[in-house]
Every structure is written in structure tokens, then in C-alpha cells.
């Protein structure tokens, strides 16, 4: 997995367009379309930071609450057997199911 650009709590996924010879990206995890591009990595980092700063300034200027990527709250369904196994694994490690699940998700995501 590649490491995404991050700035002020926002992250971006980067792609390369060979036809135009540019890198381009979009802030991930928010519905507002915040994009940027550059023809080299140094300028791409600067363009990303500028795009985030501009987004936050624009939201403030128009009185809109900026979207944040994630709240930290997750809710999903698993089979009863998966729930049982996860709860048992957490208990055996002396952790709450939330602590155990967070560690498992983080490990899988990295």
C-alpha cells in the first residue's frame, strides 16, 4: 500500500496521467470535490496543501462547516460466528471488543 498525502487531517489519493504528464489527486473521504494537480512531486505536495487550505478558507467565507474525512464511529454487521470469535479473542487479550477491533482494523489497513 502506498502512503497517501496527508495535511490538516485530510488525505488524498494520487494518480498519474501519462498523456498529460501530470500527477493529479483528490481529497479522499469527503463529498465536496477538492482536486489538485502538478507535474512533479514537490509541486504536488504544495498543490495539495493549497487545495486543503483553500477549501477550509472557502468554507469559512461562505459559512459552511467543512466536511471531515471520518468521525471515528463505525457500524457494520458481521455474522454471529465472527462476532463470537472476535469477542473471545478480545477477552483473551484483556481488551474491550472496540479496542481489539480498532487494532485489528489498523493492522489490516497498514
Descriptive notes:
The protein is an alpha+beta fold. The protein has helices at residues 41-62, 80-92, 97-109, and strands at residues 5-7, 10-17, 22-28, 35-38. It has a four-stranded antiparallel β-sheet, with helices on one face. Helix 2 packs across helix 3 (97-109). It is elongated.
Question: What would you say about this model in short?
Answer:
It is built from three helices and four strands; from the N terminus they run ββββααα. The chain has 110 residues and is an alpha+beta fold.
Number of helices: 3
Q: In total, how many beta strands?
A: 4
| CA radius of gyration | 19 Å
Biggest β-sheet strands, sense, barrel: 4 strands, antiparallel
Structural class: alpha+beta
* Global geometry: elongated
In angstroms, what separates the terminal alpha carbons?
7 Å
Residue share in helix: 40-55%
The overall average pLDDT, rounded, is 91
- Name the helix and strand elements from N-terminus to C-terminus, one letter apiece: EEEEHHH
Which strand order do you get reading across the main beta sheet?
1-2-3-4
Question: What portion of residues belong to β-strands?
Answer: 15-25%
Pick out the low-confidence regions. none
